[in-house]
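Re: [help] complex structure
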Amino acid sequence: MSGAVLADSGAVERWGVEPAGRKPARFSAGRLGIYAFLVISALFFLVPLYIMIVTSLKEMDEIRLGYLFSPPQHLTFQPWADAWLHACTGRDCNGLSPGFFNSVKITLPSVIISIVIAAINGYALSFWRYRGANFFFGLLVFGAFVPYQVVVYPLIIAARSTGIFSTLAAIIIVHTIFGMPILTLLFRNFYASLPIELFKAARVDGAGFWRTFVYIMIPMSVPITTVAVILQVTGIWNDFLFGIIFSGRSNWPMTVQLNNIVQTTTGTRAYNVNMAATIITAAIPLAIYFISGRWFVRGIAAGSVKG
Amino acid sequence: MTGAVPAPDAVAPAAVRRPRRTTSYLQAVLGTVPMIAVAVGVYIIGIAFTVYWSFTDSKIFPSDRLVGFAQYDRLWSSDRWQTAVHNIWIFGSLSIVCNMVFGYLLAVFMDQRIRQEDLLRSIFLYPFAMSLIVTGLIWQWMLDPNLGIENVIHNLGWTSFHFSPLVDKDTAIYGLVIAGIWQGSGVTMAILLAGLRGVDDEIWKAARVDGIPTWRTYLFIALPMMRGSLATAFVLQAVGVIRVYDLIIAMTGGGPGIATNMPAVYVIDMIGSSQNVAQGMAAATMMLLPVVLVIGFGGAITWYRRRRQEERA
Amino acid sequence: MASVSIRKLGVSFGHLQVLKDLNLEVAEGEFVVLLGPSGCGKSTLLNAIAGLLDVNAGQVWIGGRNVTWEEPKDRGIGMVFQSYALYPRMTAEGNMSFGLKMARTPKAEIDRRVARAAGILQIEPLLKRRPVELSGGQRQRVAIGRALVRDVDVFLFDEPLSNLDAKLRTELRVEIKKLHMQLGSTMIYVTHDQIEALTLADRVAVMFNGVIQQLATPKEVYQRPVNRFVAGFIGSPAMNFITGRLSTANGAVALTCSDGVRVVLDGYGFAERPEDGRPVVVGIRPEQIHLTQVFPDSVPVPLTLTLIEPMGADSLLWGSIGAETVSIRTGPDETHTIGEKVQAHFQPSRASVFDAKTGIRV
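Output below.
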């Protein structure tokens, strides 16, 4: 009985289940508009960087001619070498390199110390809420909103009276202090999201405060630590205000050096050198940014979440 | 049976409640000593001193001679401070509003299943990874009449084009706003895009079935549902605006003259080169006030709401 | 092996008093299940026994020792959690040996105990794997193993099977029972699943609102529930309840329903003399109602069938007595129809009668 129907399979193929009408075009005017907007916006963000790179590779005569957008006629890397080794900050002419090493000396310890402290804080606040803990934490969070300038002078006086003003120790401590609110929040939220039964199991197993932290929590903290490291390295490396106040002349970070190099008005401004110097200063955070990609976004999202 | 069962009336709990878990809780307190030290040392004692010194006549060094509100009188009658406050309002409101709008627009467009989303996001976000000094310098050059955009347009033939806001004291602040937008809209976009993606898929489907045009859905349906992200983006911006210092130093140095002075710059100036600590402290206290007010207000509202919820339960 | 004794225990969180004046005696080697709906306080009680919670009043005794203020590790307990709570970065072996490491047990002893526990639970090949590489059932075994290596007298289980699918749940339930038979340790087990409770327990403590409603063998709790809550909570499908008033007219005790229908209750063991007119609720389990007179002491109940639900191995018939609805469990091939009037039978001696106001069995 069904054979007769199926014998006409030719007709099924002909009139079968093809969709009727044309497939809607993927490229409508609206879509074009969207891309146009995004491309123009992208240009807004990229053009300044492009100009900087291009200018830093030109010689001064070419720059004086104007044409900002055109690629260099005579490509030269001398401005970069100058920026790194010879540029003058008003006092000495050693370029950016001292600043670079200072930034490293400042950033590395600050990042490590601030993260370790914040992790312990977050852990203690999540699992061991002793009386008053939340009060101090609340104070810290309040502190995150307080502009630095409000407390910077008392800190200066404190640093002076303890004799560490204008030293590496002062700037490291300052960075630890100001990194604490956000990092503690980050770690606390992270540990709070872990199942509390892990903690209970550790207690039944007989681990106390430190051993639970070291054996159980730290191994689980890799994701949040990555975010914290990115946040801190970027923030500390890019800092200017604390660097110029607390670290002392011999320890000035790269950002301060850069500003000095560019703002010295002795003689003609060597724009190509200045721009090369600027790019070099921005290089490390940018590198971290491009390498870490998604982690960076996660860091911002996490760092800006209020308690 | 292991051990005798005590008589029923010996069942009262220990008369003195032995504190449990002493060792570990003590360790917890010890471990968070830095937090306590900072919270109390910096944010209670530090602020207290700042406020205290604003009532003294400290010059280069802190003094203990109280002068009442004299510093505040001087502060508010000073041109520099007035300009600074005026500037922070303009800079703050303009850059925050523009960042939110532009950021949301970017987020909306990025939400359209763009193939190069990752690449574009990297491009929009990278300015946030750079120091504000770098940003300031970049835009100082871009807005330089001899070197930047104006020069380029001139070379293209349009010689009467003017675009150097930093030269003129009335327009310098807008140059700063441009730099602020360049630096901050990417982050705003990232936060708002995440918020947008957090809106339930089914809301979009329901709106589509209802025949609501897409732009309306974005503006009137999705946006109100993103309160969390909006708040986050706003707070992030606001906190950055109040503190803005590096950008000013790099871009204009506070000039021309005092045209782009900001409260943060004023404070640092006063305790540094102007050697008038008390003035600086007065200015700093003024900077603190709005923060305290907003947090106090916000905190009171949350506390009130929580009490209401508890009472209802 | 150790007994557990809870005396006048009180636990509150802020103003919320979760447990008050709670008493519980668990004999050596006994398997007691704390059963109840969410929020009844069973987990709180277990955590208090474990020492993970502070108690506000009362005492906890384990093995004849007052452990009310002791740390969990000093109470001689092992605990198995609902979400296994395995340390994700350690291997199964690491998980199981962590507690012993903390107690600074010599390595040889640790190895010996881990091997022994792994043998009992048949997880030897899994020892070097991390939790993420194990299935749900395997993880739960490792979690049990972690408690097992501690060589303790009392095992505490906090809803260990709730995260597993039905088939796995049945499998592991059997394993736990076998484990108990093999080790003979005292076990206190928390669950909201009555099947687990009835199959595993030596005695069940049915809890509600922080109070132990009934502490008895599974059989007792099933057949002679002490109040309406227990009666309704235990048993699936649920017990039928018919409200009405007692009448002692004509020397026979009967239930008079709201619409006048009379159901004879002769043969029911009343605790005290039934008083005429007392509002009560009669509880009869679906499998205790039959459509024919199976037992000589069954009494008739006229029903009109309203719904028929075939469930494979049996069928559930719903019928109405006046304004009330009851369910009847019968065999698979029933040929009744909706609207049919039938004469159902049940034995009052097997039913339960509760006071309508207090819910207590009369």
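Residues 79-312 of chain B form a domain with the MetI-like fold fold (CATH 1.10.3720.10).
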